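Work Package 3 (structural annotation) set out to generate three-dimensional models for the target panel prioritized at the project kickoff. During this period the team completed the workflow that converts sequence records into discrete structure tokens, so that structures can be stored uniformly alongside our sequence database. As a representative example, we reproduce one entry of 141 residues exactly as it appears in the project archive.
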Amino acid sequence: MSLTQEQEQALIAAAHAAAQNAYAPYSDYPVGAALLFDDGAVITGCNVENASYGLALCAETVAIAKALGEGRRGGLAAVAVVGLKADAEPITPCGRCRQVLNEVAALGASDPLVLCVSKDDVRRVTLSALLPHAFGPGHLA
């Protein structure tokens, strides 16, 4: 799916707003994610850290959990990821988040556009380019 400039800006703004709610007392690196579905719905998430570092949740994972909790299965069209302290290089989803995003994308056979955002730049890349040869639900059949 290609996005209009207005859709892209709105998705980035939603991710930025979500990052404002991040709970990041340990890394001081607030991250927000916004998921755009093919019906126009936008679901957001922010990172949630924990004193037991391994229990932290990334913004993309929180957004996917919210989407699945609302009954969404497939239809993932685009994702925006914003790190409030990502000044130089655009922030990209970590490996775990790429896999989690792939799960929902695979349910609808989509290859969502991922907007990786820094202060002055937006890197546009498909999920399949971020996670080539991904393992997904089809491998379990």
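The radius of gyration is 14 Å.
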